[in-house]
Amino acid sequence: MIRPAPHIAGMAAYALADMQPPDGKPLVSLAQNESLRPPSPAARVAAMRALDHGEHYPDPDWTALRHAIAECHDIEPEGILCGSGSLDLIGAIARVYAGSGRAALAPAHAYPFFRTATEMAGARFDTAPERDLTVDTEALLAAVRPDTSVVFVANPGNPTGTRIGKDALRELRAGLRDDILLVIDEAYGEFADHLDARCFDMVSSGATVVLRTMSKAYGMAGHRVGWGLFPVPVAQEIRKVVNPNNISAASQAAAVAAIRDHDYMQETCALTAAGRKAAWERLRDAGFEVVEGHTNFLLLDCGDGESARAMDHALRAQGIFLRQQAGAGLPQMLRLTIGPEGAMEKALTLIERLAQGNRR
Ligand SMILES: Cc1ncc(COP(=O)(O)O)c(C=O)c1O
After folding, report:
1. Rounded to whole angstroms, how far apart are CA atoms 4 and 2?
2. Where is the Aminotransferase class I/classII large domain positioned along the sequence (predicted)?
């Protein structure tokens, strides 16, 4: 009988959003933290042009893309690696630096794929408590064990939306052993870049990686483009396990054009922040505790797990999909992506009505 490797047989599959609207109801997807608008029109033009040369493999070194990223962030292209989404790079990091006999550590309500990637690599996944749904660097340091080899921190976090400042990240780095890789996942970084200094300079310490994605602020989730800045020796190891030709030529071309259209991305961030504020106010007025955060989503506290499931169920019955958060240890919470205006109006109106009904 064929058998999977024991560490794979023993792990749960990563829970993807389940979004089947009832018959006749159009899908309102606010479950996956996708952008409220499509990528820059320049990205579409570049992708269409690249499609005409589809007989060729894509650039395996992402040369134009790495240079566009380097120019945009004023960093060196040598340490940049690109992935088929940042998921690709998170998986590669776990395969190289976690693995059998080692462990990765993350905050209690961390992005669930950190666990999946760690377990896929055959390593143990540990967590440390958070404080007020915010990364607690002291608790993380206290949870480090002799076999800890990777610490994952998403900043801002998903699903919490909260973030810690650069000083706290520096303290965390300073408190970790030199043989522990600190991974700062800034998937939502563009939404918070105005708040304080960026973290790319921490990479020069030699054991820190900063990840970003084109899926959120650039509206390119369907293109699967993520990237990271790595110390060069770390990049050389990661490179060994990243699939060759992992990003299609059309997606690479689209990403280059999107990065160059900086104004469009910033406008997306501004529209998202305005939508987030408006939604936060409506939900708060409807009686919810809502974590506002610095991302393209809100975290809605329904009080307890049963109420969150009931709310989710009632929304789904109308084709509106938010995301339950039991997988991140927050069963009482629903995560609401800030989507296009029409979708938000439908969702918020129904949530307000349901909350009013519950109070009666
Ligand atoms: C914190 C965090 N990291 C990484 C990812 C993965 O993004 P990508 O689409 O680049 O694989 C997500 C996606 O939701 C995320 O929330």
Report:
1. 7
2. 26-349
Distance 285 CA to ligand 1 centre (A): 30
Residues 6+ apart with CB under 8 A from 201: none
Residue 25 φ/ψ, nearest 5 degrees: -100, 130
Residue nearest to atom 15 of ligand 1 (CA): 187
Question: Which whole number is the average pLDDT over 256-269?
Answer: 98
Among 221, 236, 261, residue at a domain's last position: 261
* 247 and 146, same domain (yes or no): yes
Name which residue sits closest to atom 14 of ligand 1, judged by CA: 33
- Residue 116 CB–ligand 1 contact under 6 Å: no
**pLDDT tens, position by position, 204-227:** 988 999 999 999 999 999 999 999
The total number of structural domains in the chain stands at 2
pLDDT reported for residue 359: 66
Selection from 171, 226, 227, 225 nearest residue 202 by Cα:
171
C-beta of 226 in contact with ligand 1 (< 6 A): yes
Which residues, including other chains, have CB under 8 Å from residue 253's CB and lie 6 or more apart? 46, 47, 49, 50, 64
Q: Retrieve residue 89's tokens.
A: 């790079």
111: closest CA among 141, 90, 85, 80?
90
- Distance (Å, whole) CA 205 – CA 231: 8
Report the nearest atom of ligand 1 relative to the CA of 214.
Answer: 10
- 229 CB under 6 A from ligand 1? no
For the Cβ of 218 lying below 6 angstroms from any atom of ligand 1, the answer is no
CATH number at residue 270: 3.90.1150.10
Any idea which of 152-156, 194-198, 322-326 has the lowest mean pLDDT? 194-198
Same domain, 124 and 268: no
Give the Å distance between the CA of 33 and the centre of ligand 1: 9
Most ligand 1 atoms within 8 A of CB, residue of 114, 153, 158, 210 to mutate = 158
Which range of residues forms the domain containing residue 344? 6-38+263-359
